[in-house]
Amino acid sequence: MCMLLSFTISSTPPGPTFRLTCAAVAISGATVAVRSRPWTSALSIHCDEHPFVPEVERAVDSLYSEFRAVDNLVACNSARVLKAFKNARVGFHHFGGSTGYGHEESGGREALDEAFAEIFGAESAIVRGQFFSGTHAITCALFAFLRPGDELLAVAGVPYDTLEEVIGIRDSNGLGSLRDFGIDYREVPLAEDGGLDWDALKIALKPQTKCALIQRSCGYSWRRSLSVEEIGRAIEIIKLQNPHCLVMVDNCYGEFTDRIEPPMVGADLIAGSFIKNPGGTIAPCGGYVAGKKKWVAAAAARLSAPGLGIDCGSTSGDIMRLFFQGLFLAPQMVGEAVKGSLLIAEVMADRGYEVQPGCGAPRNDVVQAVKLGSRERLLAFCEAVQRNSPVSSFTKPIAGATPGYASEVIFADGTFIDGSTSELSCDGPLREPYAVFFGGDEFVPEPVKFYNQSTIFDQPFGAFNPPTKKGKSPSVFLVDIEADVRDAE
Ligand SMILES: Cc1ncc(COP(=O)(O)O)c(C=O)c1O
């Protein structure tokens, strides 16, 4: 939505009033603004009388109140981020890089950790480029808590695919999974409605259960994501059984989708990736762990080494600035991703596809899953998204083995940051029910992608007839991947 907004702004004479008006109308008013302003003639270069695919236009119109609610969420979270930046006295001097041990660093590391902790309601935080990924940060957090003889209890069903080898659900070939270190594992399956099984949870803990793992987002499962309120209720139930059981939340994809975050409702640690929500599509790498001071220090010791703590590790070049800037923009980027998800759900459901979350259901992450039902559809969908991406549009994604995943996975990620699922991208494991997962859809509303010709919506949506007919005539646009590949060659 914001891409449309900024395009509109750049094609108008400068004026604070108009800027404010635009910001206020945010999404659904933007279409109207584009059409009714005489100075938007530049837009006619790209857009005719009906610049949007009709079904997208209808969907946007129908989502007005949802989009408005997202704008309020963004405003609320942005205010919290700004306050934290001010309190941490973030300044230019924090943006410099460091080398070697990172001992001569100019305070940016500390300011970033401090701001992050405040934003997430945590005592302490460690945000570092040295975390390879969300999986790596989560692993450091789990190893911070668990010792031989302890038990890890996953209370929201199966954890994300890449944690299987970390935990030892899948053999890690002796490379050091939790199981290799003598840590047991159990799961509380989800209830039939896809949420937490509250009754089972009330009696789930054993004396040796040292850590409960809660996965906020759906991952690659066909399940709904958890609200922070639900996470808080689960923590209460866990702590009632054993106040010494520590709670770790896999926070990937959930950040800024609510007004509160898990540490505010009692989570001992949260962990996630900076090339997802909190990096605002700007951070080029990294991850974070936040929560109780003692346990953040233990996770940091796992990232580096016991005794080194969090005051070391160099970050070269311009990366510190990108961390700060990405974190600052994150609420807005997440807001756009949520709007994109709403739109995808609306359009695909209208075409007869099963979507998760469903239209009108609450959103607790930025992920939108669409059940495509066959390997061929999943591949074709990802190919179509790739060819409509700003980066590597000329390539064809190929399904294959990916480190950490048992299933073959296909990724369409024509993104500026490699593997960034915060930019428009989608992926999915090649297994039943052959669902595609959109991770970040913030650039979807850009006019060029809604443009009423070869749009990203038109191609993947137009290429498939709905599995269940709803009396609509599908678009005639066909995806000619082979021709594309030949062109590229
Ligand atoms: C819920 C969840 N947890 C963890 C991860 C792993 O994150 P990463 O790919 O950064 O290792 C993912 C990735 O999609 C996820 O969806």
From TrEMBL:
Record Pfam families: Met_gamma_lyase (PF06838)
TM regions (residue ranges): none
Classification via SUPFAM superfamilies: PLP-dependent transferases
InterPro entries per record: Met_g_lyase_put, PyrdxlP-dep_Trfase, PyrdxlP-dep_Trfase_major
Organism domain of life: Eukaryota
Protein name: Aluminum resistance protein
